[in-house]
Amino acid sequence: MTTTAHDVAILSDFRYPGGNSTAIAAEVRAQAEAGLRTVLVHVPSPHNRDGLPFSPRIADLLRDGLAELAAPDAVTHARLLVIRQPRIFTADLAVVPRIRAGHTVMVLNQAPGDAADPRRYYDFDEVRDRVELYFGPGIEGAGIEWAPISPPIRSALPVAPLSAEDWHEIIDVAQWWTERTGPVADVPVLGRHGRADPVKWPRTADELLRAYPDRADLRVRVLGGGEIATRLLGRLPAGWDVVPFGGEQPPDFLRSIDFFVYFHDPDLVEAFGRTILEAMAAGVPAIIGEHFRPIFGDAALYSTPAGVEPLVRELWADRERYRRVATRARDFVESRYGTAAHLARLAARGAGARPAAHRAPAPARRPAPVPRPRPVLMLSDNGAGLGHLSRLMAIGRRLPEGHPAVIATQSYGASVAHEEGFLTEYLPSRTVLGLPRQRWAGFLRSRLEHLVDLHRPAVVAVDSVPHDGIVAAATARPDVTWIWVRRPMWRRDTGTDWIAKGSAFDGILEPGEFAAAADEGPTVADRAGVHRVDPIMLLDHADLAGPAEARAALGLAEDRPAALLQLGAGNINDIASPVGRIAAHLCEAGFQVLLAESMIATEPLPPLPGTRVVKVYPISRYLRGLDLVVSASGYNSFHELLAFGVPAVFVPNRETSLDDQVARARFAAAAGVALCVEDPASDELDRVLAEAVRPEVRERLARRSAAAGIGNGAREAARWLAELAAENVRTGA
């Protein structure tokens, strides 16, 4: 057991992405400037899902040496303990951190509920009982100080002994202020930023458009949560520019607008208004609701949504008044919410700034400790199915402990990776965000750079075509080894532009292809220096369930043959039309028929007589319980069926952008290891299925596919990436 001594200990859940982490970061930086030592004590909140990483703002503090993270087994001594976020204590803590502090402040930075439900978020009495049990009284015998963050929170709390002063937010104005020489555009630009939450927006479309007008002579910029507004409106107004959360840094965003406008659901009890504070510090006039007046006094402009447009036009026409409003707001924020106010309240609680002679050396950016594992960050594209993601998980589960995998994916299958035990980051695809190509490239670059800075990987493995955002991120972070995991068998005369961008990577890893002899795509001519392995599959033979276990898991009877239909994710083209014919044919032949529904299918499979839908990942674990599989000839399912000796009929998907499923399926049929139906709308389907249901045909297919001896290259791929990661660490990159 170890003991540490600090000036300020801050206890919270450091995974919150919004105001909680921003407020903590501001306080820690002010404390570091004053020579105070800060320790962060992480306690998971029961309403935050597992697997979330620390907020980037918190990760930056730890990386830069501005704060230390308390070890789970440490006894932490501090002059002052500050606890933030009451929702942490809505359930008993599994592990109570051991903290000895001279004074303890519980910061109430969220109301217990809202107008509709006063206890929606927490019960104050229950939270108070737990906090006092765990952390009071202090070593000097003092009880816990309960400090609301603002007047609205104070008025929302039940009658209880509360601190005479609010523990308000703080901000370093010097880091935000920009001297404005004029408007940012030829028309007024209104804006707002914040995390995506429906209660952060007006409740009705009418109120929303009053606050953020759709006018030809006005523009609106939204950073974060814009999808909520456009969903409420049912459209994206022509004058709106919607940027995803994290797509721009707030200071840069605020420099791109003339007015900050913030209105929310009337039931919400807004704790403080951090984004308003930031706008005022940046010199942007804030137009907000009257209920914020106790916090921002006369420094803000107060209105209803209907009054926004007239007020904007008034200030737009009077630049001198605009300048006075901006300057008054800055001065107000500096005097009331500046860092000096924070240091004064620390001093009043026994944690004042130390004399210069007794301060610890100024914190400097510290290199990561040598023994710390350097992960492999694995980025997958937004495929129609789970192919990209499954290949990376196949490699990731075989990486050594010294270089664990972190999965970042644009696929809806992010939840699948999380359930498989991977630390998972979700990056919405361009289609999901509805962004033009150039803006999405900027978003993707920003998010990748953030993930590299946060997780500090030694290698980034990309199973995706090299989008501009990926290339830009690789260029911006050259100290990391970037590897392109490039599946072969592209369609002829496609993708040459992608091939040309391969030079942005430090190396190319190519999974093997059974049908390589039929590959006429552009990757064939670009194999110089490529590291090639056997086909990559998620599971090995030893991972498969036995026939009886597999049948039991799939709910199949032992006395009848069983067939599985897996024609794709249903996200590329219409897979419903041939499914009915195939299912009817197999049912008539006496088969039990299962329909495999992808874990990320956007439309459910239609119900078919005599069939049953299964939604299992990975379905390959149960292939030994099946007598026949009718499948699309995508890379993963194709190689799994042949490697595991499963009789298969391939129905290639012709609508893929790169993957040549037709050539792959033709080659398998020519090699005698599977059957192929190229046109399921023709009578070819019935002819091939009539052959496939014959036991002697299935036995021959199983024997020939097993004899092909297809190995699994996932372990070799993992070994190679781990070697690259180790080399990166050795060279200090």
Explain what this protein looks like in three dimensions.
Helix 11 packs parallel to helix 12, helix 13 (387-396) packs across helix 25 (714-730) and helix 16 packs parallel to helix 17 (468-476). The model is unreliable at 362-371 and 570-575 (pLDDT under 50). Helices cover 33% and strands 16% of the residues. The strands form four sheets. Strands 15-14-13-16-17-18-19 form a seven-stranded parallel beta sheet, sandwiched between helices. A six-stranded parallel beta sheet has the order 3-2-1-4-5-6. The chain has a six-stranded parallel beta sheet with strand order 9-8-7-10-11-12, sandwiched between helices. The chain has four domains: 3-156, Rossmann fold; 173-332, Glycogen Phosphorylase B (Rossmann fold, 3-Layer(aba) Sandwich), CATH 3.40.50.2000; 376-532, Glycogen Phosphorylase B (Rossmann fold); 541-707, Glycogen Phosphorylase B (Rossmann fold, 3-Layer(aba) Sandwich), CATH 3.40.50.2000. It has 733 residues and is of the alpha/beta class. The protein contains 25 helices and 25 strands. It is elongated, with a radius of gyration of 30 Å. The longest helix has 19 residues, at 319-337.
Quick rundown:
The strands form 4 sheets. Strands 15-14-13-16-17-18-19 form a 7-stranded parallel sheet, with helices on both faces. A 6-stranded parallel sheet has the order 3-2-1-4-5-6. It has 25 helices and 25 strands. With 733 residues, it is α/β, with parallel strands linked by helices.
